[in-house]
């Protein structure tokens, strides 16, 4: 069965290119394409795509606000942002709203399809430039204050690997611990940060360290 993808993009030529790329990729099918957040809010709860590719800079309601409103309506859908913005505020806002990944519009065909496959498998794809931005934020001096949310050094290390997009097995190998232990740490991280997903955990913690 094909992985269904819907698109929210106001630029008609870009929307057509994305549609063609997805339909020509093995194992994928473009289910629908919307030109605004408002039309997406009407149509997509019915379409129920597996993945939603969203532009941030939309006319009217922004892509980030659209994701925030759609997420409760289609909770099984994975949201992937595709945008020209590479600044930290847009990244954190998108991830906090419920996005699972964040790519720049300069992303080519191969990387886009690979990212769609990754997000379908539960990963959090990001272009290397954006991933570096997020990882660098963890390398800034972090005083032991309430902004660390009570996280232990091991939990902060796991968050850094989550931000990099590593799978649980890769995190376990990097830290020489079991996957079960990784899951236990992540469950505690979610509880301390009051979040329900890896993207929200990474966004909330990283944003707090930059304040």
Core attributes:
single chain, 211 residues, alpha/beta, Arc Repressor Mutant, subunit A, 2 domains, 10 helices, 54% helix, 13% strand
Helix and strand arrangement:
Blueprint: E1 3-8, H1 12-24, E2 28-34, H2 37-47, E3 51-54, H3 63-73, E4 78-83, H4 88-97, E5 101-104, H5 109-120, H6 128-138, H7 153-163, H8 168-175, H9 179-193, H10 198-209
Parallel strand pairs: 1-2, 1-3, 3-4, 4-5
Describe this structure in words.
- The chain has 211 residues and is of the alpha/beta class.
- The protein folds into two domains: 3-126, Rossmann fold; 133-209, Arc Repressor Mutant, subunit A (Orthogonal Bundle), CATH 1.10.10.
- It has helices spanning 12-24, 37-47, 63-73, 88-97, 109-120, 128-138, 153-163, 168-175, 179-193, 198-209, and strands at 3-8, 28-34, 51-54, 78-83, 101-104.
- The chain has a five-stranded parallel beta sheet with strand order 2-1-3-4-5, with helices on both faces.
- Helix 7 (153-163) packs across helix 9, helix 7 (153-163) crosses helix 10 and helix 9 packs across helix 10.
- It is globular, with a radius of gyration of 17 Å.
- Mean pLDDT is 84; it is low at 141-146.
